[in-house]
Queue: 2 jobs
Job 1
Amino acid sequence: MDAIRCGDRADTRLERGDPVPEQTQTLPDVRKSVTVAATPDQCFKVFTERPADWWPPSHILVRKERAGLAFEAGVGGRYYEWDVEGTEIAWGRVLEWVPGRRVAMTWRIDPNWQSIPTDDGASRIEVDFEAVDAEHTRVSLAHVELDRHGPGAERIFRALDGPSPGETLERFAQAVADGAGA
């Protein structure tokens, strides 16, 4: 790589074959958690098998009335919603699937809260299920790599750093209380 001086600033340019530098993250991760009266396995099941019971109804990508919301189990599976006419929109793709412990996925949303078709430009959601004691689990949700959303990522950060993920976790805690592991 050659450095070209321009005043006091060095302009670095990649030559063919040089490794591409990693993108520096400028936005912090958004982390929220809730402790619920259930085991990690029960929490994982509610989170992945019953998302329609806790997902906020205002968080919708389909244009018509939402008919369902689901996770496809395992790495590579989608988490997606569909409307009354059968139109499906994927919120993302599962990156990690460790029952009772962790699920991580991409989050395919643009700064205008519209779906993007691929993981290019998608951030990640990481959810960990940690036993606090024999009867309680801490569920921690993190939105990470928000800079991947490109221009407008700051707007996404500001929205996520507000009540939204907390509301989602409150709804999740209520779904667990209404029938843990059901």
Job 2
Amino acid sequence: MMFIGFDYGTANCSVAVMRDDAPTLLALENNDVYLPSMLCAPTREAVSECLHRHWQVPTGSDENQQLLRRAIAFNREEDIPVTADSVLFGLSALAQYIEDPEEVYFVKSPKSFLGANGLKPQQLALFEDLVCAMMFHIKRQAESVLAAEIRQTVIGRPVNFQGSGGEDANRQAEGILLRAAQRAGFRDIAFQFEPVAAGLDFEATLTEEKTVLVVDIGGGTTDCSVLLMGPKWQGLADRQQSLLGHSGCRVGGNDLDIMLAFKQLMPLFGMGGETEKGIAMPSLPYWNAVATNDVPAQSDFYSTVNGRFLRDLIRDAANPQHVARLLKVYQQRLSYRLVRAAEESKIALSDQEQVATTLDFVEAELGQIISQQQLAEAISPPLQRIQEQVSLALTTSNVKPDVIYLTGGSARSPLLRAALQQQLPGIPLVGGNDFGSVTAGLARWAQTLYR
């Protein structure tokens, strides 16, 4: 029976198996081992119906059964055919959304929402279906690569899913992941902290014991663990004595992208301007437009009430043509594209002094020049939050690390690396496979548990 390490990430998903005592990541989309965490369907309801009708996935709880009944009725009423190919994932999902943003249901990073406070039972059921659909698809892809059934998995999880909510939020989120994985067909399911998993992959390279500070900056969360590592710990199923301290918060690469979009792109849409009477424009609609990892903010921005408010804002604005661009974002549901443009600029600024960000999907020739200095200013608040987590992990462990192991999608950022080296001078900072280290470590832990 096969087992996998499963990194159900905020930005990307990936899975790995152990071959000859080494982790191997499996191709999930177009020979790429990373599947962007995106899903697209004709309607929200098509996801639930596709799971049941075409993939024969068990429905689970009473709440999910009610969701399914409502979904089937809605799709029938709206005359929306649901086929086995109606739900798309990864770059295919993104391409479909870019082609027709108004007419499709698109979700990026469902993991961001799993620990959210105040979710109603029907929202929890929907998120469970979304996660289950992605897990089912990924499991099926992995099984086709391996030509074998996969029944056992270790799934990575952040130290804290949510900034507030504490253990209640963590239980809620892990519960959604567990039920989704069971429905997707996994029989044995275990969880491991993502920074611990990343550390396990680094540990395989050590020849002597070291105290390691693992800093894992993913798409949605930053997680830190202080661990004793070395040959004597490898392969032990009980690692409690080696885990010296943890910290985690819901700030990650997505937050850097959102802050950059807010600070540098939103002025093109009227933010910071005035009405004809000289009153400052409200900033909240601009924040809600780009806060793609915040359910209430996005619900508020795309509400009918906000549509009317934006039209009133255009009427009153000193530069109505700028605010009209924000109305277009509202009408064509362009939030994700704005944040993606900011993300692409952030990546380009890793090795360029400045970059020209183009927003021609909003208006021809609309764009902005962004410099490294402007990026540094924009991401300063989330960067401070990340540094606070490093301090917290070191305080709880009460030891000085021998080495910092930096991993995660944002680990390549020169700004981030410089901030950590300034915070902890004299401690060597090493990196690994920025995207694959968590997955590789999860596969190693799966081997320890299931071999």
